[in-house]
Amino acid sequence: MRKDNTVLYKSNRYTVPFGTYKPGLRLAFRDDDGFLTLFDEKGAIVASHSISLEKGKLICNNNHKRDNSHKINELNEKVLGLLGGSKDAASFLKALQKEKPRYVRDQFKLMADVAGKYAAKVVEQAISYCLELRLYSAVDCRDAADYFRRQNAGEEDEIQATARPDAWPLHLKVRAEHRSITVYTELLGGDAR
Fold this sequence. Notes:
Low-confidence stretches: 159-163
Distance between the termini: 98 Å
Structural class: alpha+beta
Largest sheet: 3 strands, mixed
Number of strands: 6
Strand order of the largest sheet: 1-2-6
Helix content: 40-55%
Number of helices: 7
């Protein structure tokens, strides 16, 4: 791999994403039916290109030239603020960025949705839970938040049900009408003795 984030293959240069180059980094490649796929040391796909039959060409994917790290850092800071700026939230977002670099935007956006949908206490519980179990996925965090919300709601519902009937949900305020048994026996044509 070259310092300009390109790889030489069959007399052509093929780009990899900006910032991929590191001294000593070696990429593996696979040539499948006219497509060149480049892999990192962990086996993750770094880039994929159609193989050119020409010589001396630069085969470029437009998004490989952009430095997106600045925008990702801004998004990270924004989401961290929405999550309350705690140390656990920062650790979780850092783990998301490390574990899911290709999908980090989607992960951060889902975490922003979680912050908007659930109470701060629930989000903190979910993040702590995910960090403890090393579940570095926004989907897992959302599911954990939903679970903790239901757990906390169950406790609150019990407190509300015993404390204030005026705060009960509408379905708990419904009362069945009481009728005499004779109403039913007359309807059915029977005798109420």
